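Lecture notes, structural biology module. Today: joint structure prediction for complexes of two components.
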Amino acid sequence: MFGWEFPPHITGGLGTACFGLTKGLAKRDVDVTFVVPKAYGDEDQQAVKLVNASDVPFDITDEEYKEFWSHIKYMEVGSNIIPYVDPQEYTKTYEENKKTGESFTSNVFSKHYEFSGTYSLNLMEEVARFALIASGLAAKENFDVIHAHDWLTYPAGIAAKKTSGKPLIVHMHATEFDRSGEHVNQQVYDIEREGMMEADKVITVSNLTRNIVINKYGIDPDKVITVHNAVDHTMLKDAKNIKKPYKEKLVTFLGRITLQKGPEYFIEAAYKILQKDPNVRFVMAGSGDMLNRMIERVAHLRIADKFHFTGFLKGDDVNRVFSMSDVFVMPSVSEPFGIVPLEAMRSSVPVVISKQSGVAEVLVHALKIDFWDIDGMADAIYGLLHYKGISTMFQKLGKKEVEGLKWENAALKVKAVYESVI
Amino acid sequence: MRSICFYFQVHQPYRLRNYRFFDIGEKHDYFDTYSNSFIMRRVADKNYLPMNALLLDLINEYGSAFKVSFSISGVALDQFAEYAPDVLESFKRLADSGNVEFLAETYSHSLSALKSREEFEKQVKIQSDKIKQYFGVEPTTFRNTELIYSDEIGTMVADMGYKTMLTEGAKHVLGWRSPNYAYTNAINPKLKLLLKNFQLSDDIAFRFSQQSWGEWPLTSEKFVDWLNNIDQKEEVVNLFMDYETFGEHQWEETGIFNFMRALPGRVFSHSNYTFNTPSEVAETLQPVGPIHVPVPISWADEERDLTAWLGNDLQDEAFDKLYSLESKIKNCGDEQIQRDWLLLQTSDHFYYMCTKWFSDGDVHKYFNPYGTPYDAFINFMNVLSDFIIRVDTICGSPKDDRKDIKEMAEKLMDEMEDATRKKIKSSKKKVKKTIDQGKNIKFDDIKNMSNTAIKKLVKEVDINELTIALKDASTEVKEKVIPNLNKKARQTYDELQQNLKTIKKADIKKYQKAVEEKLKELFRK
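The predicted structure, tokenised, for the full assembly:
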């Protein structure tokens, strides 16, 4: 399995999803070799911890983890691949890092695949390098199916398939259309398309994504299968019962602050609500290229005393924010799946989600609105804040609903896909 | 004789700590004690202590010929007391020399002059008291935060009794005129204005160590030549700058201390200038005319306006939200609220939110705890959000908040209605009770009756009968009735009392019955 990030080093939902899926597969008696490009030079130690599982940041005495590690082999490949950037952005980031003197070691962790020479600035070359390593791996390792997650790993998947002759599954967690709107990067699009064309089967995380794959990439509908994501219940600690230190209700946005996530619609809805009801606070948790613009907008609307920003939040703080929240909103413009609302619901927080999200396909106990419908969003939020009937119902049933979304079940579907190609 | 007037600004803000969203409502310590004390110590050692020593040397050497002035913000003074008491002592020594004038400003180096006269006056008072407390003199010259000035601010300062005020000799205000004269406020000519000669001031403050500058290196000889080049008729050269220029903005290695050490000697030997304090200059010079400044100016940046602190959305939002609390805080007795209120007004917080110098961050980056103006804004707003919660809970509702008044009025009306309803209900009950009582009233119940009722009764009943009826009555009843008798009745009672020794029990009963009947009759009415 080729991925590009793995907990605890995650920048988005993909790492969580990959982790959940591998765990689910382990339970279904599927052995997985997980190969990840090493994105940052400073990760060695923690990564090693992951590999030998001697002192993993989560509780490994848990029986489940023992079982997990008996099925999983984790490999890390030295690379500068950085998740969630496009090629231009990558070059920029690299330059910046070079300027600030951040170390970019060229050491490849693996004894067998050590590279000499320096790394190039070009993300595409890195992707190609990853592919090269993959083909080497494919010759040595023993496996039945190749499973590649998202475009950065597709060339690696294709290379591995060519070397080994084993079937290839590509997993579409997000398409270039989700990431960039209509301004797609042609190179990325080409890689995505090639990956899907070469693949024996394509797994999409929602029907929304499946439709994009069929309509915008021209992939044969027969080989595209939707497997909805699930929730890794062990990853989530039980929400601490933190008492909010103020009387106002709290409405939360949590995610990367980028075009795809629709943060500006959340702000406009917040403004509408605050005009009617000053006893509400809003918090936008996360970081991203639109953060500063959002801050300026909030200042401009003069609601900054009731609209807060937290910056990027990690594990514990995410739970903290959920336990303080009264409503969670995911106004994504385009969300292939969207795992965060599930985490919110698991913490008994009622959610408002956009119809343009994959998760809207599986959830019943959630209010669904169009991302652009600010009035509708404001209505939904206001309703959940004020009408106890619906909010208590969502709290109770939503939690149950999410608990039913198990990775074991998703893994079973994935396993069926594997079996269909072996 | 012409004057060189040195004024040095000494200011260090109480910087905010990294205050997170999760702290809102939970934690109320806003300030970064560690970095504030660290920075204070560092500037003390690099700048305040050596420069104070140098000035004291010069004063000792040249006596009354060498004078300078300081404006030290109240928050800086408090931080000296807290983190660097040696600096405070060395300023006191300068004060004792008598050659140093201390100016008045706002306690927290705030922008209150732009927002609230009341708050401004309050802060100036705190500051001036502090100066008096530490240095034994009451300031008579005023300088506002960052030399911010307008006609309106000038009048306000004049009304407070100050005779002289310092501000920037901004080109767009002066036009063809020279800053090297005394001017007056456009509305109140009693207030004299001294204007900064920004050319010569900035040669020292900003360009001193700039090697790309054509005049580098700057020597005291060269500087005195420039002073001599100024038209002989021009009377004063105002050199206004941050005190941190000496050793902090311009490091010791640049030769800034040596320059200052050499300057007075060169001035005395090669020019007709003397060194004077602002109040001396204002006293001797005849103002040449008023300066019109309808829109506030400052000494900051090329623009010499307020855009370093106010004007972008981040700054305006933070500033307006902060000052919207003024009316609530005004009458709030909580000491910690008052303290935080002052410290949050420090202009530096808004300075950090400025987006003007994204590209050329130079002197503005100095001790700026934030990476970007956005970080500065978020952090300040998190603190302010918590502060608002505290103000709302501790300081109660404001006087001029109409909505709150309306709500309170409505509540009051409701309560009054409730109270009235209850009162009516209980009155009805009482009346009913009294009537019920009246139906089977006994003679002995007189003791529970009000004085008015008894007076009424006494009028209705024949005094002779009453006296007999009372013969056997309890002392309580007697005590109740007798004081209510009028003079004549009282006399009759006393007389009869003597003659009633052998009255029959049955008679007493009879007359008591009669009184009871009378009472019932009265109640029925």
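Point to remember: The CA atoms of residues 176 and 189 of chain A lie 6 Å apart.
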